[in-house]
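Apologies for my clumsy wording, but could you write out the amino acids of a protein and the C-alpha cells describing how it folds?
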Amino acid sequence: MKRSLVFLIYILISGCSDIPENIAVEKINQTNISARLISKSKNTSRPLVIVVPGSGGSYIPNKKLYGLVFSGYDVLSIAYFGESNLPQKIELIPLEYLKEVVLWSKKKFPERKIVLLGISKGAEYSLAFASNYDLIDGLICYSPSSFILPNHIGVQKKESQKSSWSLHGNEVPFARLSPFNDPAGKIVYKNYITPIFNNAEQIKKSRIQVENSMCHILLLSGEDDLVWPSYKMANLIKSEAEKNKQERILTHISYKDCGHQFVWFDQEVPQKRTEYQSMNLTGIKKHKFLYGGTQEGTINAMINSRIQVLRFLEKLSSLQ
C-alpha cells in the first residue's frame, strides 16, 4: 500500500505520459541517498542494476534506462551530485555514499545480486568503491578511468585541486593535472589525462587498486575516446585486476572508431551519436568536450555493448 501511494504521488508530480506501461518509477525517500527505482514486476529474480552516472550531474533521464528494465533488469538510478541535497560538484564525494546506496539495495532486495553500472566518471567512482568495499557481485564500466582524478574543469589556477572522492573523511589520493586553460570551443580533454601514463609517481599515487576488488567485472571502451584514454586505462585496469587470482569474470571489450559516449539500452537501432558534452564555463560561449569516434563506429558500439551488458548480467544470474 505504501509503495503504491508513493508511486501514485510520483506520477502526479512528474506526469505519466513518458512512463511505459508495466514499468513503475518510485522515488526513494531516504535522507542519506538520492535514488529512483525503475522496475517491472517480472524482474524480481534477476540482479538489481545500480546506475552511477557521469559528470553531467543529477540523474540519467529515466527514458534512457527503460530498455534495460524491459530486458529483465530492475534499475536503481542514483544521483551523487547536482541535486539540492547533494554536493554541487564532484569534489570529495564520500565513497561511503555509494556504500549506503548498496546497503539499502541489499536490505530491500536480500535475494538479489547487486551490480554497479558506472558511466565515465561514475565508472571511476564505482571502481574506487569496489576496490575498498566487498559488497557487490558485479561491476560494469563504460569508458572507465584507471586513476583517481581531481575536480578539475572550472577550477582556477590559484585554487588547489581536490580529489573527486573521500574515504573515512580523508581525501582519496589523486593525479594532479595541468590547470584547465582551454578557451571556449571544441576541446580534446584527453590531453590533460594522457600525461599521467608518463609519470610513474602519479601512476603509483592515483591508480585505483582494482586488484583488491572481488566482484565480476565488464569493461567497455572506445578506442577513439577524446575525453580520456579509456581504452588504455581499461587495459591497465584489467591487467592489474588479474593480479588477484580469484575466479571471476574479467572482460574488456573495446570498439574501433568509437568515442567516449556509447551507452544505449533500447532495442531499436540508434540513429545518431552524441558528439560532445557542452558546458557553459564563461557565461558567453560554451566549451564543447568532444567525445570522439565516427558515427558508424559509435553506433556499432552502442548496439554491441548493449548485447555484451545483457550477456554479462545473464551470466551473473546463473552463477551460484
